[in-house]
Specification:
Blueprint lengths: L1 H14 L6 H17 L3 H4 L10 E4 L2 E4 L1 H11 L3 H4 L1 E13 L2 E12 L2 E15 L2 E9 L1
Parallel strand pairs: 1-6
Antiparallel strand pairs: 1-2, 3-4, 4-5, 5-6
Length: 141
């Protein structure tokens, strides 16, 4: 019993809680997307978006509603690894809105051959759906 209590105390000290932390989980999910992108795996990188006709994507080029059109746009623009470049980001603001909702804003860029080919600031709404953290809405500018 004493040993179990010591383990529980150690978990709380190292993680800050015995419960999952939505902010930490969302950061890890975005890091996973970046790793998939930089490995040239577009399909895996897109898995953090909510596969629903209700997913909202807002960019300089306009508004898209639904996962399928966004995925098709990415497939068209980044048809092979050579076009994908290197994706990186810098967190600007992350806020837990509830146990199942996180708002994340960050500066991002994609470089190809050492030159920035695109970038800006993104604001994302993440929701825990089916046990996974997914982006349900993104505004990238």
């Amino acid at each position: 019993m004493v040993r179990s209590l010591k383990i529980l105390v150690a978990v709380i000290i190292f993680t800050g809680s015995v419960f999952p932390n939505p902010v930490t989980e969302v950061r890890a999910a975005l890091d996973g997307q970046v790793a998939a992108w930089n490995a040239g795996d577009l399909e895996k990188a897109m898995k953090i978006y909510w596969n629903s006709p209700e997913m909202l994507w807002i960019a300089k080029s306009g508004i898209e509603k639904g996962y399928a059109p966004v995925l098709e746009g990415y497939r068209k623009d980044f048809s092979d690894k050579a076009k994908m470049g290197v994706y990186s980001y810098e967190p600007l603001h992350i806020e837990k809105l509830s146990k199942r909702t996180v708002y994340y804003t960050f500066r991002w860029k994609i470089e190809l051959g050492g030159k920035k080919i695109m970038g800006g600031v993104s604001s994302q709404v993440w929701k825990k759906i089916g046990g996974r953290w997914l982006i349900t809405s993104e505004h990238a500018s």
